[in-house]
């Protein structure tokens, strides 16, 4: 289990393809996934993160609240040309005892 607090994305190398908006799902067991919520809306709605506008720029997005999980999925909402991305997760080392 990790405590995830952010994600960075980039488009596809040497191709004009990238994801412009996405949602993030997370799970403890890999079966049941929850979607990161926008805590600034009432009632809370799925948070849509701004993605990329080119192939090489790194775009960092912080999660509204850290999530303790084992699995993370990025769900493209919108994209340019084709769905393609590189991603990196940020957070804490494994949470002990979980």
From TrEMBL:
Family matches, as Pfam families: F5_F8_type_C
InterPro entries, per database record: FA58C, Galactose-bd-like_sf
Annotated ranges, domain F5/8 type C: 1-92
Protein name per its UniProtKB record: F5/8 type C domain-containing protein
Organism: Strongylocentrotus purpuratus (Purple sea urchin)
